[in-house]
Amino acid sequence: MRSRSAVRRLVFFALLLGIVAFASPARAQDAPVASGERVVDEIVAVVEDNVILRSEVARQAQALLRRRRQQQGTAPPAAQVWDQVLQQRINQHVLSARAAEDTTLTVSDAQVQQYLDRRISRLAQRAGGRQQLEQTYGKSITQIKADFQDRVRQQLLAQQLRQRRLQEVRVTPSEVREWFNDVPRDSLPTVPATVQLSHVVRYPEATEGARQQAREVITTIRDSAVASVPIEELARRYSDDSGSASQGGRIQTSLDELVPSFAAVVSRAPIGEISKVFETPFGFHIVRVNERSGNTVDFNQVLVEIDKSASSGKEARSFLKAVRDSVVNQGAPFGLMARRYSEEERSASQGGRVTDPQSGNTTLRLEALGSSWRETLDTLEVGEVSHPTEVRLLGSDERRAFHIVKLTDRAPRHQLSLDEDYARIKNFALREKKQRVYQQWVKTLRDEVYVDVRAGSGSPPMSAR
Q1: How many structural domains compose the chain?
Q2: Do 321 and 389 touch, CB atoms closer than 8 A?
Q3: Dihedral angle, C-alpha 152, 156, 162, 165, nearest 10 °
Q4: Closest Cα partner for 107 from 148, 160, 50?
Q5: Are residues 396 and 431 part of one domain?
Q6: Is the domain of 231 the same as that of 370?
Q7: Longest dimension (CA), the chain
Q8: Could you report the per-residue pLDDT of 354-370, keeping only the tens digit for each?
Q9: How many CA atoms lie within 13 A of 237 on its CB side?
Q10: Strand, coil or helix: what is 460?
Q11: Which contacts of 335-340 are long-range, i.e. CB under 8 A and separated by 24 or more positions?
């Protein structure tokens, strides 16, 4: 068995690099068994009226092992991971059983739907699109959601129960120091250089000729759609949205995930009809809304982008220069100016704060930013605002853009220390303490709930049997 310090060393490296992926109970059936594997299923545990199948544990264990190998280059023994996954699933069912008895816990239909929307979006991204996801499951998105709905509700209730039990757990400064001192000094990791920053973004203006050309193209496409050419066929042929074109322009998502100008159209467009041409920051669109359910909308779209490659960006630069002057020389709050004038809606709503598109963190690893970002940041001291520069934005937005940047904080590459990283270390210590409290609590709950474990310790994944 690994020592406590050895385990902490692994946790340190993983957490600092942001690569720990805690498996969600809903993921047990996400990863299909690799082709060629012989699946012989059986019940490995029973919790109250719920059964846990070997296939469920094996799929999740195999997915976890793959991620560990991809992220860290190595992985624990398969039997060890299999045991961990089995215990996690048992604990989840134990929590769900207790949560179902607690009448003070509530989960609305809207909460369930929002969780399902996010989950389906992630699964579709992994599968290569919603159509591929439907093919993998052999069911429509609506049917997949229906299959997961009760399970998701149980999970959300269990999460509430766990959060309520752990919300009062705290760590004292002495516990933080004890936690840190328990880690051997030669095992302390190096923290990469990080920055926190905000920006105001402007997109270059297209020439009137480019705008008119794009509008004429989308208008012609709409005429074809109204004249009974399937919008799916038109999207495959002409749409500039690479993410949906191959799917016939079909997208199913929550309104919250759409830019406001697009959400405003699809939230009120008549079902089954081809919309009028409308414009968003991405270009000109037409849509056909297939279904609306709560906050979720299913639609097909065609996007025609406006070619801005010929734009010099002079207007965008001039506008940003004026914004910078208001901040630097006239004392205007940077966050306020970002909310008013930035055209990147995601950061504008947060006062210009730049976040990691994947994790949502505001602390960004400097080495992970593009060269244009680093070149700009190299000229700044904390608190300063850059001059306008062209930039490739983070995430999937590939449009040309210009921005001014305010450097809020900078931390150089360094070995982890209490003085510089107290908040981070405190968070690690708190996580570990919460995990200890949780394990002790669940152990007590398991004595109060019917649990029958039928698989022996170290039972291998199905493919190894």
Answers
A1: 3
A2: no
A3: -160
A4: 160
A5: no
A6: no
A7: 74
A8: 999 878 889 999 998 98
A9: 11
A10: coil
A11: 335/198, 337/200, 338/198, 338/199, 338/200
